Amino acid sequence: MIKKVQLIVSLNITILIILSISTLTANTSSVKENDNFDTTQIIQLYDSIKNNIYSFDKAIGFANTCFELSKHAGYQHGIAETNSYLGKIYFHNGELDSALFYFNRSLIQFKSLEDKNKIITLFNYIGVTYFIDGEFKPAIAIFKKGLQLSDSINDLKMIADFANKLGACYEELGFYTKSINVLVKALEASRLSGNRQEEAHILNNIGIIFQNLNNYEKAGNYYQQAQQIFSDLNDPQGLSDILNNFGDLYYLKENYQKAIEYFKQALEFSRELEDDFGVALIINNIGGCYTMLQNFELADEYLEKAFQLAEEIGYHEIIASSLANRGNIQMEKGNYTAAIDFGERSLKEAKDIGAISDEIVAFELLYKSYSELNRFKEAFRCLKNSQLLTDSINLIEQNNQIHEIEAKYETEKQEQEIEILKREKEVNRLVQNYLIGVIIIGSLLIIALLILYFNIRRTKKALEKSENDLILANNTKERILSIIGHDMLSPIGTNKEITDLIIKEKNNLSIQDIIRILTPLKPALDTSYYMAENLLLWGRLQRKKISNNPVTGYLKPLIDDCFSLLEFHANLKAIALQFDGDETINAIFDKDQLTIVLRNLISNAVKFSEKKGIVTVSLSKENAYAVVSVTDTGIGIPEDDIAILFNKNSELESRFGTNNEKGTGLGLIIVKDFVESNKGKIWVKSKEGKGSRFSFTLPLASGISNDKK
After folding, report:
1. Could you tell me which residues are beta bridge partners of residue 628?
2. Quick one: pLDDT at residue 176?
């Protein structure tokens, strides 16, 4: 009798693999929850748990420290993760009930934290624990939940993993059709994810199912595909498992010599991996093959080695199997008393671990040995127990077969229903296609009419807009020509006459005379320059040719520059220019545009202020904006004019200043456009005879320190 490898060869190492993954997750999830909590010590403790996972007391100590640190800091991820690690510690110590307790506690906590990846991981832990404990139905329920959640986030790796384990559970229960169906899904997912190692394990598992169904040819084909992938990946564990399965396959085909060849190849890989459990299993299998070949000397040698190693590592299933095999050898040799001794020892081990098939083998050995010694009472007792256990297994198998037949019936019924639904769907599709055709034709006609209607409207609007644009362009041209003809040519002509005079009389004029003649020209020249600049800017605004280039900076330096530029004009009227407010205010603005805004507003304030007046520029903050105000003590603005002051389409004429200064009437229009271009607003408060206050806003440069300016 030999022992085949378990269906899911990766199940026994699943927890170890996940340990390293969860450590990486713990490294990154903590920062999001509490930026002020340093998780370095907890992560180091997780590493210590992993490194001491087989040293129960040490691992528990590290876990308790993790729990206390996380609890003290209110670090919920740490508390949940520590419960997960406690589950792993108890799992590796063989205390599966305690492992389930902590895994379920961690699952509840991660559900409250809505951490889907951790929830998937814990479904994996819990399902594996149930599987190892032989509780296949609850394992199926858990694996299904994990599969559903993995499917919802399209995690192909975990879809393949959960489907693979579901297949294992169905195989253990004898539901081979369900097992193959779900393993095919696992195979598709593993191939889509590019996980070749998982693909090889699934191929191996499908091969085992066909082997259990006595379809040795298909089993061999799947084993070969798996072996090729394991070989390409240079995976010694996978190669050990698949070679052991090949040995099992040839044992069942009664080609014992070929089976020994495969078992010996598998043995080399298990020894290389220092896998004592794998070595004990394979040595026992080789001993079983030599027993069938009647080579009792070699058989006993291998079985004794298997027994000694299994006893050393606590592999009770192999202890029971090797003892029964050695008992059969003694019985074949006629040493019935020795055979009984081996049989009783094998029976005790089998009962301790609940291995019914090993109990049956031991009872059959004892029955035959007692019979040969004419101890019929003991022989009858063993035969009766063997038959009872066999009947119980047969009953389980019959129930499984019934379930399998029911599953096939349900599958066929579903297929028939699907076929009926397909036909109904085809009829509905034809009707729908006809109706859709009618609807499409009607819709196209309606769409065509709508397109025609909207095209007519669009054309009409475009013509109206073109007409309005043409009117605006003509008005703009007339306004510019009027300003050039009346407001700019006069001061330019005056300046030209004086310049001609200076050139003509240059030999008769001293430097002081020239300075005295030119000094009064500066205000007129400045006024003409500003007029020209405003005209150019206004023209560019009309054609939308000005771009906005915002920067972050202080406002006070720009105000100082404008004061310096307009100081000469202010001094001519003995007007004081002063600043009031917070000099440290930062804002976001286009520097060139803001300079023009400030210069126009301050220039207007000087223009409309009486002699010895005061012009004040103030800075303040209001919510997320800087507020700039230019206040004068001048003649003010009529109330009727305030409402249309910033309206570019208004007929409001430019007014003369208190010293007969002339403007274009375009300055405030440009100011409004530039303020709005910088995401601000402008408004005015004024009273005739009392003065005016022009205010506008700019976005504050929030979050930028002064040191960086």
Report:
1. 619, 696
2. 84
Cα angle, residue 402 at apex, residues 400 and 408 outer, rounded to 5°: 105
What are the tens digits of pLDDT across the range 423-457?
A: 666 666 766 776 687 688 877 778 877 887 777 77
Computed from CA positions of residues 462, 468, 474, 480, in that sequence, does the dihedral angle turn out positive or negative? Answer: negative
Q: Report the C-alpha gap between 64 and 45 in whole angstroms.
A: 10
For position 539, what pLDDT does the model report? 64
Handedness of CA 40, 42, 45, 47 (dihedral sign): negative
Counting every residue written for the chain, the total comes to 709
- Find out whether 155 and 192 touch, Cβ atoms under 8 Å: no
The residue behind tokens 């286009």 is 590
Residue 33 CA to residue 653 CA, distance in Å, equals 64
When comparing pLDDT for 26 and 71, which is higher? 71
Q: Identify the pLDDT of residue 420.
A: 61
This prediction has a pTM of 0.49
Lowest mean pLDDT across 94-98, 103-107, 191-195, 645-649: 645-649
Average the pLDDT over 77-94 and give the result.
Answer: 91
- Determine phi and psi for 408, rounding to 5 degrees: -65, -40
CA-to-CA separations, 224 to 228, 229, 245, 528, in angstroms, rounded: 6, 9, 11, 95
Please give the pLDDT value at position 53.
85
Rounded to 10°, the helix 76-92/96-112 angle is 160
List pLDDT tens digits, range 567-607. Answer: 888 898 899 999 999 899 999 999 988 999 999 999 899 98
CB-neighbour burial class of residue 532 (10 A; exposed 0-12, middle 13-18, buried 19+): middle
What share of residues in the chain are helix, strand, coil (percent, to 5)? 75, 5, 20
State the residue for tokens 């043995």. Answer: 267
Q: Which residues have CB under 8 Å from 226's CB, separation 6+?
A: 200, 201, 203, 204, 207, 238, 242
Q: Which amino acid is at 317?
A: E
* Residues whose CB falls within 8 Å of the CB of residue 261, separated by 6 or more in sequence, listed in order: 247
Beta bridge partners of 580: 618
The answer to whether 320 touches 307, Cβ cutoff 8 Å, is: no
Q: Which residues of 606-645 are buried (b: 16+ CB within 10 A; e: fewer)?
A: bbbbeeebebbbbbeeeeebbbbbbbbbbbbbeeeebeeb
**How many Å apart are CA 596 and CA 668, to the nearest integer?**
10
Q: What's at 613, amino acid-wise?
A: G
β-sheet bridge partners, residue 554: 586
Under 8 Å between Cβ of 355 and 332: no
| Mean pLDDT for the stretch of residues 680-702 | 92
Average pLDDT over residues 461-484: 62
